[in-house]
Specification:
mainly alpha, Na+/H+ antiporter like fold, Rossmann fold, 6 strands
Amino acid sequence: MPHDTPLIAILAIGLGLAFVMGLVAQRLRLPPIIGYLVTGIIIGPFTPGFVADQALATELAEIGVILLMFGVGLHFSLKDLLSVRAIAIPGAIGQISAATLLGMILAWAMGWSVGAGLVFGLSLSVASTVVLLRALQERRLVETERGRIAVGWLIVEDLVMVLTLVLLPPLAGLLGGIETRGTGDFGLASRLGVGTVWTTLGVTAVKVGIFVALMLVVGRRVIPWVLHYVAHTGSRELFRLAVLAIALGVAYGSASLFGVSFALGAFFAGMVLAESQLSTQAAKETLPLRDAFAVLFFVSVGMLFNPAVLVENPLAVIATFLIIVAGKSAAAYAIVRAFRHPREVALTIAASLAQIGEFSFILAVLGVKLEIVPPEMRDLVVAGAILSILLNPLLFVLLERVIDRQAVSAAPVEPEAPPQEAEEQPTALSGHAVLVGYGRVGSRIGDGLMAENIPFLVVGENEASFGPLAERGIETYAGACGEAALLARLNLPGARWLITAIPDAFEAGHIVEAARKANPSIRILSRAQGPDAAAYLKALGADQVFIGEEELADGMLAALPAPQPA
């Protein structure tokens, strides 16, 4: 049996080593992403030992990007996208322009041509899809106003980069590289007798327009119908397969037929499916694969890194890093504030965009291939990406602390602050109950608390379920249980009860552990789906854990008639 299996090797060694290094990073109180990047460096071509297939790693990472953008689309709607166009479009274009200019200045200082500086600057201007969305999802910010602006900003950046990649080959001659004709426009320029650039631009616009129209007109009907049809077969296996086929199929078709990026195609597929009642289940089915392939993305980034560049050209690496983290962030912050958005929104957007990723690598590789830029430009881009990705989680930690301090000090909300940001004030309740989750179980508990006149607040991820609570004057807080800024608003030290009504013990464990540390006397009641989950919650500090199946069985037994005496 042949053992030359590079695909199995990269999956087994890459994921296995990523798990070990991610666990080490977690133990050192560092983001797991750092462990994944170190894994890529270890199995990359620039370090001794096993060398993984870099081309395969890149393709596997692209699957992670597709599934990630598909998942974001499932929680996004056309209305959400259009609601942020006033800031996302001018903001993204303005930030790209500022970063490109800074990159051109650095290129000029290194003696590169104007064309090389333009490509270099553009490669530093676009944020990584995976890094941005992972940061937003970990903090449950995707569905907030800050998250919607960041995602809309990302979509505009993707469109600009798609256009750049299409136009770069016909413009290569003007930019000092290898002149190509017909690339990207299927030779239409020469046949129609018009300028290559304008023809390519027109063809690209038409193709993207057709794709968007097909997705919004045809896809909105066909994709949900297909998923509903499969759901009625009763086969969960077929349903899961249908979701993956839609995500990957639309992404591949959009790239092959319309020249749209995989990420953008997958986003539109998810967005049209979001109108279906099965969108939540579809998101759950893709979650495990999405996380696994997202890890491979960071591993593939680490494989590109050549540590020698840090010694050979340290000043250029530092300057590149500062443009990405400081230059881009400052431009984004200034633009968002200029549009009169709150400081919290501007800081979130600035932190989200302070990194680069997949489009940057593609643009750098293409620029080297067309001989527009020198080969060292690719090393600078990869070094800048590695350093900025490493720093990005720390920026979000700093962001949460800044917002937390503002919340604790109860600073007055700016007049232009939207309702979502105004809700982020600490509670004034004391001696209250903290209810986590407001689904079928949580809503019944909430009704019981109101009937007993027990003051309480509700924490949950699904803001749509909060409507009835707001009408009754019940405080609600949207976000993840482990988010530090959220926990600071709940007054856990002054609470009497914590009730976790969500089925996910891992998610509930964050707030159970935090509550027990903050308030040793608090009474903690938790819901679990099995003995293992119950033991996990009790180990973290829960006083009593209720297992659904056991409670149901006890209730049914209690309803049985008493046995008749013999």
